[in-house]
Amino acid sequence: MAYYYCVLLDLDGTLLDFDRAEENALEDTLREFELPCDEQAKSLYREINKGLWAAMEQGKIKRDKLLVERFARFCKQLKAPCNPAQMNRYFLQRLAEGAETMPGALEVVRELSEVATLVGATNGVTQVQKQRLELSGLGQYMDEVFVSEQVGYEKPNRRFFDHILKTMGVERRDKVLMVGDSLSADIKGGQNADIATCWCNFINQPAPEGVQPTYTITQLRDLYAIVMEEDELQNVGVKHRKHQS
């Protein structure tokens, strides 16, 4: 059995290429509503959106309000008339079609699923996240997926993780690993829940003070050596292994 037999996996920026999905969805939305679609406009949206998600992680704004508020603030900055709720609905529809994966994601998830229970653990909109997961091919290797909208709590809230572990029947937190690219949501959240954490530092960012992940990786394949026992490492790439969970 794997050293970590329950692996919680963030989706956006960890397994799914959110930047590409967001770029395509945003461009489609701006064109649909006849708004500027240049780099300045897109950067403005990302700045507003990032700030609101950070506020949500701190408990300062609810997710439902955030989704519409980002477009309201965006249009206000552009001094352009718009229907923020309508824009958000259109954007989420386009976003749900963004199923591009991060390098190596499909291979790594397939291999890990042979030795551990894999659980998607993501903030966001349930329908959007689950549709992207299925379209990408990653969903078939997940034992369960938990989205903050459905759970009722957002990462890094400990209750988000407590809900997952209780639902999955996990008793030993020392055998659980949270994997994600966000220090504020994934790593801080894992620490709040007293479980090991693995920071996906794919762009080699300097590690800030105050939040120290248990592990740091620069590519998803590095997870093999963290999750698997020695005999399991030797079987990487061998088809039709028995799933142990």
Automatic annotation (TrEMBL):
Its protein name is YjjG family noncanonical pyrimidine nucleotidase
Q: Which InterPro entries match?
A: HAD-like_sf, HAD-SF_hydro_IA, HAD-SF_hydro_IA_YjjG/PynA, HAD_sf, PGP-like_dom2, Pyrimidine_5'-ntase_YjjG
For this protein, the record's PANTHER family field holds: PTHR47478, PYRIMIDINE 5'-NUCLEOTIDASE YJJG (PTHR47478:SF1)
Which GO terms label this protein's molecular function in UniProt?
5'-nucleotidase activity
The protein's organism comes out as: Candidatus Allofournierella pullistercoris
